[in-house]
Amino acid sequence: MFSTKLNLWILKLLWDWRFAELQFVDNAKQALVLITKFIVEQHEGYIKRCTTPMGYKQIRHDLIGSNASPAKLMVFDKRHIRRAIPLKIQRLQHYDHKFAFIDMIFLACRRTNDFVSKQEMQRMQNLVAQCADTSHIFVPNPIICAEFFVRFRRDYSLPCTVRAGHWLISTYKILRLDVLNTHPEFHVGSGVYDIVDGVQPLHQKATHA
């Protein structure tokens, strides 16, 4: 934790005096919600705008098309992000480019009846029945719980404009996607994805920013 804080300060002092950790974390939550929404809805064009070329390639390989079915459960708003933790900060200078990378872990939880309309609630119940092992579910409105690893990248050699110089997603991985009876801290649920061995891609294929 101390090294993470220190490296955030170094990023601020050396490359970006306007950088603010709390603002970055808040924006990262919103970015997670948006990219997850685009993945659930399979909007490849929008995904491409939010990611680096390798980030888009990794998401397309892991989560677009036939592999995307369980991901439909990941319907989250910003208020459902319970944790957003910076893990690692790296600065890399490559020729004329200055890249900064920030690795984040997120935990999101949403109960299946936490929707405005009955149609949305019924849709989630149907998705749970299709995508999860419901033999472990004993409550009428279980909790969808997901853990994410996201690596953000920014090229500080580019001026910040509408099209460049922003934080983009270079890696997006679902570490765990569960349907739970109770709070996720109890670790009770039916695993849909359960890939927590280090931070490996869903298909165990290495990706690079």
Automatic annotation (TrEMBL):
Keywords: Signal. It comes from the Eukaryota. Residues 1-22 form the signal peptide. GO terms for cellular component: mitochondrial inner membrane. GO terms for molecular function: ribosome binding. One of its GO terms (biological process) is protein insertion into mitochondrial inner membrane from matrix. PANTHER family: M-AAA PROTEASE-INTERACTING PROTEIN 1, MITOCHONDRIAL. This is Uncharacterized protein. It comes from Drosophila navojoa (Fruit fly).
